Amino acid sequence: MPQTIDSIDRFFLTLFNGSHSMFLDEFALLFTNTVAWVPLFIALIILVVKNNEKTSQVMLLIGAVALGFLLSDGLADGIVKPLVGRLRPVNDPSMASVVNVVNGYHPSGYSFFSAHAANTFALAMLLTLIIRNTTFSTFMFLWAVGNCWTRLYLGAHYMSDIVVGIIWGCCAGAIAYAVYRRLYYKVSPRLHFISSQYTRSGYSLADIDMVLSVLVITVVVLIMLSCLWAR
C-alpha cells in the first residue's frame, strides 16, 4: 500500500507540478499567497456583519470560523506535520530530478498534510452550511480547489497531502458548523426565510453577489499581474 500511494503521488506530482509557463508560474505564486485574498476575507466579514442583527450572532459566526481554522490548521501544522515529518516534494533531495522548482519557491515546514487544503475547505464547508446558496458554495469550493492546485503546481505537496487536507478540512468545517448551530438558537429565533432576495438562512443575495464579485475581480487582477510579470 505505501508503494502504491507513493506511485500515485509521483504520478500526480509530475502531472501538475510546473509547466514551463512563466504566466502560470506567476499566477500560482500569487494565488497561493494569503495576502492576495485579503479583499475576499474583508468582503466575507461585511457579509456576516450586514446579515446578522445582533453582535452576539456576528461574534458566534466569527468564533465558528476560528474554531474551523483551529481544527484544520491546528491538526495539520501543530500535530500531524511534526509527527509524520514528510519532506515537501520541492525540498526533498530524492525528488530533485522530478520536481520543477518554480521561481526558487521553497516553502518551509513539512508536507503531510496540506494546511492550505484543510483551511480553505474548512472555510468553504462552514460558510456553505451557514449561508445556504448554491452559487456561493460553488464559487467558494472552486476557490478552495484553486488553492489546492497551486500547492501541487508549486511542488509544495503530494496528492495524498491534498486529499487528506480536503477531507479533514470538510470535517473541520462541519464540526464548527455543528457547534455554531447548537449555540446559534440560544441567541436567535428559529427563522426560515422564503424570499427571492434572501437565502433560506437569511443572507441577502445582493450581499452574496458582492462577495462573489470581489472573488472574481481578485482572480482577474491576479491574471493581469501574472501576464505583466511574466514578460
Task: Describe this protein's structure.
By secondary structure, the chain is an all-alpha fold. It has a domain at about 55-200: Up-down Bundle (Vanadium-containing Chloroperoxidase, domain 1), CATH 1.20.144. It has helices spanning about 1-15, 20-30, 40-50, 55-85, 115-130, 135-155, 160-185, 205-230. It is globular.
In brief:
By secondary structure, the chain is an all-alpha fold.
Mean pLDDT: 91
Number of strands: 0
What would you give as the CATH superfamily of one domain? Answer: Phosphatidic acid phosphatase type 2/haloperoxidase
Q: Tell me about the biggest sheet?
A: none
The helix tally amounts to: 8
Radius of gyration: 19 Å
Itemize the secondary structure elements and their pairings.
Blueprint: H1 2-16, H2 22-31, H3 38-50, H4 55-84, H5 115-131, H6 134-153, H7 159-187, H8 205-229
Helix pairs in contact: 2-6, 2-8, 3-8, 4-5, 4-7, 5-6, 5-7
Descriptors:
8 helices, globular, 69% helix, membrane, Vanadium-containing Chloroperoxidase, domain 1, mainly alpha, PAP2/HPO_sf, 0% strand, single chain, 231 residues
